[in-house]
Amino acid sequence: MKKNKNKETKSIEKAIALIVLIIVVVIGTYFGIEFDVEGMFNEMISDVPEISYSIEEIPEYNGKIYVVIDDNNPDFSEEDMEINEYYSELKDGRVGMCIIKTSWKKAKSDEVKDDYSSIYPTGYKQKKYDSSIVPGEYIYNRSHIIGWMLGGKDVDERNLMAGTQNFNMNGMKQFEDKVYDYLRENKSNHVLYRVTPYFVENNKLANGVQMEAYSIEDNGKLHFNVYVYNVQDGIIIDYATGENKLAKK
Questions:
Q1: Of the residues 7, 23, 108, 121, which has the fewest C-beta atoms closer than 10 A?
Q2: Rounded Cα gap, residues 193 and 81, in angstroms
């Protein structure tokens, strides 16, 4: 997969920040001034935008569970804005794009989670590992595409995919929490939220999902557009089937 040009731009910006920091520290040291070098560097690069990619140019996973897409700007059309809730029908058993216009009322409409253990998404080849390798021990969750906590359908095969512990708990959850926290603080507002799974060819397990959100009433005070990798560190996954095994050290 191709790397986005923004990666080179950000690397240059970080290098410039580092050079400036070195100059400041050298001059300060000459005059006997002590610095919190790490803190200063983190502050200097905090305003540098995260590296951004197009959805067609997602890089290989390198240890970070997500990457930013299109400068974090979601790609909703006027027609999308009119959608209340939609779940793609299964194709060859595989899930597809799901979208919801959610609100605090919708998020709190069902506070009792139902049992969906009878649903087996494609690629759900469950295996247990030591908790030091896979927190929670079992590699896969039945991951809601539209989170139940955001008003997504609880027991619906169109809304459940096989997702690793890392994908579910460290990837999707942090962005679901952003939407949930926004709705809790803005109870009369709505957020358009879309999740699109990406499969390679006829693979049973999705390589990841694109997650997009846009708060409507305040013209995107909350917004994001990210790709979350369906991976588990220390585990080799065959995406064609969902089979998995411990990586050799």
A1: 23
A2: 10
Work out whether strand 223-229 and strand 66-69 pair parallel, antiparallel, or are unpaired.
Answer: antiparallel
Residues 127, 181 within the same domain: yes
Q: Which amino acid is at 188?
A: S
At 214, the amino acid letter reads: Y
Q: Of 211, 186, 178, 174, give the one whose Cα is nearest residue 100.
A: 211
Q: Give the integer Cα–Cα distance in Å for 152 and 158.
A: 11
E strands in the chain: 52-53, 66-69, 85-87, 98-103, 140-144, 160-164, 190-198, 208-215, 223-229, 235-237, 244-246
Q: For the range 232-236, what are the long-range contacts, defined as Cβ-Cβ under 8 Å and sequence gap of 24 or more?
A: 232/134, 232/139, 232/164, 232/165, 232/166, 232/167, 233/63, 233/166, 234/133, 234/134, 235/129, 235/133, 235/134, 235/139, 235/164
Token reading at 218:
């305040």
Helix (H, G, I), strand (E, B) or coil at 57: helix
Q: Tokens 């139940």 identify what position?
A: 148
Residue 173 lies in a domain: yes
Q: Is residue 87 part of a domain?
A: yes
Task: Let me know whether 118 and 190 are in one domain.
Answer: yes
Same domain, 84 and 132: yes
In tens, the pLDDT along 202-233 reads 999 999 999 999 999 999 999 999 999 999 99
As a whole number of angstroms, the distance between CA 74 and CA 71 comes to 9
187-202 residue pLDDT tens: 999 999 999 999 999 9
Q: Strands 235-237 and 223-229: what pairing?
A: unpaired
**What's the predicted TM-score (pTM) here?**
0.82
What residues make up the domain containing 118? 69-246
Residue 64 maps to a domain: no
Cα(116)–Cα(119) distance, integer angstroms = 6
